[in-house]
Amino acid sequence: MKKSFKMKVPHTYVIIFFIVLLMSILTWIIQPGEFDYESVDAGGTTRNLVIPGSYHTIERDQANPAGIIDFAASFHKGAIAAADVVILIFLVNGAFHIVIQTGAFNTLLGSLLKRFYGRREKILVIFLFTIFALCGSLFGMLNEFNGFYPLFVGLGVALGYDAIWGASIVALGAFMGFAGGTMNPYNVVVAQSIAGLPLYSNLGIRVISLIIFSVISIWWILRYGTKIKKDPSKSFMLGEKTAFSLNKEELLKYKVTLKHKFILIVVVLSLLLIVWGSVRHGWGTTQLTGVFILMGISAALIDGWNADKIANEFIKGCASVAFGALVVGFARAILVVMQDGKIIDTIINFMATSLEGLPELLASYGMLVMHTIINFFIPSGSGQAATTIPIMVPIGDLIGVSREIVCLTFQFGSSFADLLFPTSSVVIVCGLSEIPIERWWRFYGPLFGIMFIAQIVIVTAAVIIGL
C-alpha cells in the first residue's frame, strides 16, 4: 500500500530563521540605495514624504550588509526594536491569566455559551464581525482590539470550535474593515491627502469594497466553523492548546458569584477604557498595558488574593506566551537586516519604475501587487503611504492611471497582507491568541488568495468606470 505524502509546515522559528538568512544574503546582492525625503503637510499632519525621482544608489561601505555575526545578532536587535509589542503580549496575557484564575472569565464564557450555543452562533458571528469591521473602516481601529483576542479565543473554544475561529472574528472583522476603509484616517485620509485628492472622494467604491470583503470573510469563518464542528480533526489547531482553551461542560457548571460580577465589570470597563483612550486621546501600547495591569491586579484583589499569589500567577501567564512574544521580536529581525543593508528603497524603486510603459489596467494590477509586496518591507500603513504614494502618483499621471486608483490599490495592498506577512500585525494577533503562526497561515492563506481575486475585480471595475 502506498503511503500518502503529507507536507509538513516547518516550525515558526525555522521559517523566520531562513527568511532572515535570505534577506541577509540579499544585502550582499542587491545594490544599496535610498530616497531623499521632505517634510510636507498632509491632511493637517507634517510627514516626511519621498521626493519623486530622488532615488540614488550608495556605496556598499555606506550600508551595513549582514555578515555572519550581523545575521545572528539581528534577532537580538529585532527583539529590541519590537520591544513595545513583545512586552505588550507578555503583560496582556499575564493580566488575563489572573482573571482566568479568579474564575470570572470562566463564568462569563459559560453565560455566553448558554445564550448562544446552537443556531444563534451564526447570528453572533455576523453581529460581532460587523461591529469590528465598522470600527476598522470608519476609525481605523486595530490595536484598540488587542485586548479582545483572549476573550474571543476562549469563546471560540467554549462553543466547540477552536482558537483560530474565535480570533478570526476579531482579526478578520477589524482588518477587513480597515482594508475596505470608508473614512479610515490611517490609509484613506493619509493617501488622499498626499495624492492631492478631496478627502473621502469616491466613497461609493469603498463602501462596496467593505461589503464584499465582509461577506467573503463571514462566509469563510462560518465555513471553517461548520467544518470543524462536523469533524474536530479538521481543526488547524489540532494538538495545540492555549491558556484560553476551556472545557464546555466545566464552563456550564460555573455559578456566578458577586465577586465574579465585580471582576467582570472591571474587565468590561477596562476594555471600554482602552477603546475610549485610543480614539479620544491616541493611546498606544504603553497605556493599553497599563490598563491591563490595573485590571489584573483589581481582579485579584476583589477575589481576595495576596501579593505573592498575584505575582506568581502573573508570571505563569507571561510564561505561557513566551513562544508567541518572541516570534514578534525575531520576525522584526527581517526588517532590521534590510534596513541596515539599505536595500528596501532599492526594491521599492525597482518595482515602481517597472510599471512605466504598461497599459492602464495592467499598471493598476501592478500597483496592487507592488503595494502588497511592499507591506512586507513597510508594515505601517501611513509609513507606506509616505513612501509609495509620492512615487506612484507621478508614474500614474504619466501612464494614465488615475490618482483615485493609485490610492485604492494602496489601500488594499497595505491592509490584507497585515494578516499574512511575519513582519506585520499577524504576529501580534497570533501572540495574543496563542496561535502558532503556521497554523494561522493554513486558515488565512487560501482566504488571502480569494480576497486578492476580489481586489482585482474591484480595481478592474474602478478602471472601467473611469474612477
Largest sheet entry: 2 strands, antiparallel
Order of helices and strands: HEEEEHHHHHHHHHHHHHHHHHHH
Q: Determine the mean pLDDT.
A: 86
**Helical run tally:** 20
What is the number of strand segments? 4
Tell me the overall shape. globular
Poorly predicted tracts of residues: 1-5
The first-to-last residue Cα distance is: 59 Å
**Widest β-sheet, arrangement of strands:** 1-4
- Helical fraction equals 55-70%
**What percentage of amino acids are in beta strands?**
under 5%
Find the structural class using helix and strand composition. Answer: mainly alpha
Radius of gyration: 23 Å
Q: Explain this structure to me?
A:
The protein has 467 residues and is mainly α. The protein contains 20 helices and 4 strands. The protein has a domain of 282 residues. Helix content is 70%, strand content 3%. A hairpin with a 2-residue loop joins strand 2 and strand 3. It is globular. The N and C termini lie far apart (59 Å).
Helix/strand layout:
Blueprint: H1 12-29, E1 33-34, E2 37-42, E3 45-50, E4 56-57, H2 68-81, H3 83-102, H4 104-116, H5 120-139, H6 149-158, H7 163-179, H8 188-195, H9 203-230, H10 248-253, H11 258-281, H12 285-302, H13 307-319, H14 322-341, H15 344-353, H16 360-377, H17 381-399, H18 403-416, H19 426-433, H20 437-464
Helix pairs in contact: 1-14, 2-14, 3-12, 3-13, 3-14, 4-6, 4-11, 5-7, 5-9, 6-7, 7-9, 7-18, 8-17, 8-18, 9-20, 11-12, 14-19, 15-16, 15-17, 16-17, 16-18, 16-20, 17-18, 18-20
